[in-house]
Please model this.
Amino acid sequence: MNENNSGRYGPYGGRYSGETLMHALRELEDAYRKAQKDPAFGEEYSRFLREYAGRPSLLYYAERMSRDLGTTVYLKREDLNHTGAHKINNVLGQALLAMRMGKKRLIAETGAGQHGVATATAAAYFGLECDVFMGKEDMIRQSLNVYRMELLGATVHEVTDGTATLKDATSEALREWSRRVEDTFYVIGSVVGPHPYPEIVRDFQRVIGDEIRAEMLEKHGRLPSALLACVGGGSNAMGTFYPFIGDPSVRLMAAEAGGEGVDSGRHAATVAAGTTGVFHGMKSLFLQDDEGQITPVYSISAGMDYPGIGPEHAYLHDTGRAEYFSITDDEAVDAFEYLSRMEGIIPAIESSHAVALLTKMKSGFTPDDTVVITISGRGDKDVEAIGRYRGKIR
Amino acid sequence: MSKENIIDTAFRRLRAEGKKAFIPFVTAGDPNIEATALIVREMIRNGADLVEIGVPYSDPSMDGPVIMRADRRALESGTRLRDIFRVVRELSADFPEIPFLLLLYFNSVFVYGIERFFSEAEEAGISGLIIPDLPIEERAEAQPAASAHGIYLISMVAPTSLERAERICKEAEGFLYCVTSLGVTGVRKEYQTSFQEYFERLDSFSNIPKCAGFGISDPEQKRQIEQYCDGTIVGSAVERKIEAGIEQGLDEARIARSVGNLVFEFTGGK
Model:
């Protein structure tokens, strides 16, 4: 795996960026390499995770679910982190880097709003200016998170271009970074974008997998049989999987957004239906036509409504080390309700895709298997939209 | 020896005559591909020395709102690469001394197939490509095919290139596209960059022709900037003119003439 820090994952990755940003990407990489070598940075980051984000997150034994599904199920409770999702892990790391680099302002793209909320939170904590770019569609779907960001002192910019979702918000954040590159730090929310972002975000999210590993060894004396996570850009999945890549006995299973079904054309299942391309600074898999025009994607989940996937995931798929499955909106909504009723835990609609993957694949596991599902975020933000989807709320 | 790229011929002639290059930009297919052909003819008739044709993209993350809207209109009119190659083939046959450049995102080349793209581009008479998201570090992927087909990859340099500028200057071919302000494409009223310092530094690395782009919106700005470099590139101002023509309900010929008049304002007809 990427041991040489070159930003290449097999044929994927790279730094396909405009010249205006190339120096900033270099500067970021240099700052990150220095931070990696500096024990003080690691200690400060760990302290923030512990004292501010509330880590380690629980590894919860889901007893009723285990009985129901006929296997041993643990939930990695990223939903219990401060701000309610795994996004805070990465944002605190990048905000600390921004402070070291003397940047005065954080910008971010956001889909479901969780990354935007985490960035706004870090900006409030460190006293930095904060601008978040969000598609108009997502501002409607996730209106609660828009107000949360504003409450935290961030300015939320509505993006109306294209499909007015995460990809358009990402493009607009890149434009804004080009306009004010000198004093601005772009906090990318997933394992996407030009090098070194996919590496940095993975490294700040691997705490999820590291904790799972330590806790499973402590509780069971052995590694889990399988790890399940949802994947849009792929940051919680990458963080969950990464420490286990060298352990072939551990199945790595990712759930991508199948929308109304891969055959319907209305989905965001990049691995199932994508081809290799270059977009948003990286070479990876994208949903696009035969001339490289990005095709409109769709998912009930704003956080997974993105036409690409992180380059390291594309590589894990190619090598067969991780498996990628499509989960439809209906399956995800069923799982949202299932976990709520079975365990009293309301998961984010994104994380519900990973829950759905286990309910769908349960026949592949026995009671002796231990399966860990990363619950990447909590579902409060989705309650209203799912209520409408089910016709319970008008 | 293969024959000389006409970009080199054009700049040698301009320098010998003590003239500056004027390079207008137009998005192919805005409002449709036949209009583009008319617009480019008007540009040349009114003094364009080189012509830069934009390949429309679904998600132009390095462009401002004017080019974004142009790209959307072009894609809505059904513009495909084969249409662009066809139109440039006709134009390059009629104007064999005018270098035609394509400006496009790397994905348009990559997904089409790098070898296939350069082969068809050569056949269409294209002299150079400007690929803003293919920095020198990633260039090796396209350079062999470009060179094999006699097409230049035009490099961009920006005020933020800093220590990178020397390598970019030394590896540049054809001319250097010098970004004169930060941000994305679009017209601007004021500049913060000191042009003299910027171009003197670039000149110290290489004698290659240098053209300024990004945000040049009127003839006065053009005159100010070109005293420090070899030419200017004007894009968003052209697209604003096309957009105004569409909004007024003008037909293709009238839109093309309005762009021709705009080019004349910049060049004085030469």
Notes: The mean pLDDT of chain A is 96. The CA atoms of residues 71 and 365 of chain A lie 6 Å apart. The interface with chain B takes residues 14-24, 26, 161-162, 167-168, 170-171, 174-175, 178-182, 275-281, 283, 286, 288, 290-295 of chain A (CB under 8 Å). The first helix of chain A runs from residue 19 to 37.
